[in-house]
Structure formats: structure tokens, C-alpha cells
Amino acid sequence: MRLDKFLTHTGTLTRKQANAAAKAGKLCVNGIAVKRSDIHIDPENDIVHYAGQPISYHKYTYIMMNKPAGIVSATNDPKQKTVIDLLPEALQKIHLFPCGRLDKDTLGLLILTNDGASAHNLLSPKKHAEKVYAFHCRRPVTPQNQEQLEQGICLSDGYQTKPCKIKMEQPTSGFITLTEGKYHQIKRMFEAVDNQILYLERISFAGIQLDSALPRGAWRPLSTEEEAAFTRTIGQANDLTQDAESSKNTFDE
Ligand code: URA
């Protein structure tokens, strides 16, 4: 594989940046500075450094983002800023997409990947991947409301939600854990009990916790452990799919 292709594939540098980095002596292969970025390397065995940092080869990229408000969870939008716009240029070119959507005003954990098959698997309604959200709402959640929401509630369009878990911290704030993700689901669930969500932040998804040290709007690659947790959930998800008869395999977020 060409060195510049290796660097673009891993989302490290664009081809132009790779060329400039080589000329500036910032690229090393097996400890030796290289002057050209079009040389061929063995991505599995050669050791590449960019600006002193080792760059490991991986087939797919997995990114954790702490989504801020006011940004849409899409790959492109003619009018609005997307989560992809928050990434550096090199990462914008490797076809990452958000694994499940958050509303424009929802904050918190978003996983971006270019591992299409796994993301599709994970998002299928049959997969039961848990998503935990911190919420604040306008009115106190009564014990009856909590029970109704936890057992599953009929939304305004007639959809019956699946059972979920709610842990109240204060009368108007707590955590809700869903295993599905219909459009505006939590907001509509709370509307169904005459309440209103004022703040929503995803703090966990498919076994991965939002890194509390990651500032709002910032991103970082998933750690090896997080990537393993993610792919483990995908594995479990695959087991569930095989059990489920005739899954339509549709995205529902
Ligand atoms: N439920 C919502 O209402 N909005 C989100 O962004 C996520 C879940």
C-alpha cells in the first residue's frame, strides 16, 4: 500500500498533507525519515510514525464525539453544520457516519465509524443495544408516570414503546435507558405523560461511556478496550439477529 494511501485511510492526513509532511521530514517508516509519500509500505508490518506519533493500521475507524447542541447528526447538510464538520479534514474524507442519530439539541455520546456493516447491525431494532440518557424535564415525574414510561407507552402516532428503565435523581431529572431509538423518542414519551424534556444528553451507548474528560464538540478515537466493547456488543447483536425470525433489519433512529 502507498504510504499516502495508508495515511489517508487511517484518517491521519490528506494526500496533500502527507506529501508536505514527507518533505518536512515528519514521516518515518521503520525509524527512517522518508522524503516521499508515494513509496510503498507493508501496512501490517512496517512501523509508520507521523510527527513522532506511531500510526497503526486499522481497517475501520471508530471515533467518540461529545456532540454539542446546534449540530445535526448527519454526514452532510446543505444549510446546517454537521458532526462531520467538527472533524479535521483528513477524517472528513474517510466516509465516517454517525452510528445512530441525536437530535440537533441533544448532547453527548456519538460514535462515528466507517464500519457500515457493523453499525447497521448494531442499529437494527432487533439488537437491543442499550443507550443511556441523562434528562431534565419540566414537571416532576410521578411514580405512576415512571411506571407507564417503563412499561411502554403509546406515542401520538400509535407506536407502543418497548420497556425501558428510568432512575430518578431529582423529581425532574434522572437517567433513562432505552434499547430502541425511534424519532424524538424520549421527547415524545415524556409528552405522552404530559411532561416535556428540557435537557437530553446521551452518556452511554452499546457498552461505551461518554468520556467525561472530552470537552463538548471534541472527539477522540475509541480506545482499544472501547473498540473491543463495541465489537463485542455487535457480536451479541449478531447472535440476537440470528435468533430473531425475519428481521427487516431497518434503522429506526
Ligand atoms: N430521544 C430523543 O427524543 N432525542 C434524541 O436525540 C435521542 C433520543
Indicate the percent of residues in helices.
25-40%
Cα shape: elongated
Count of helix runs:
7
What integer is the average pLDDT?
Answer: 90
Low-confidence stretches: 237-252
Strand/helix succession? HHEEEEEHEEHEHEEHEEEH
Query: How much of the residues is beta strand, in percent?
Result: 15-25%
The Cα radius of gyration reads 21 Å
Give the class from helix and strand content and strand pairing.
Answer: alpha+beta
| Ligand kinds | uracil
Strand count: 13
N- to C-terminal separation? Answer: 37 Å
Give the biggest beta sheet. 9 strands, mixed
How would you describe this protein?
With 253 residues, this protein is of the alpha+beta class. It is 26% helix and 23% strand. The protein is built from 7 helices and 13 strands. The strands form 2 sheets. Strands 5, 6, 7, 8, 9, 10, 11, 12 and 13 form a 9-stranded mixed β-sheet that branches. A hairpin with a 2-residue loop joins strand 9 and strand 10. Helix 4 packs across helix 7. The longest helix has 20 residues. The structure holds uracil (URA). Uracil binds next to helix 6.
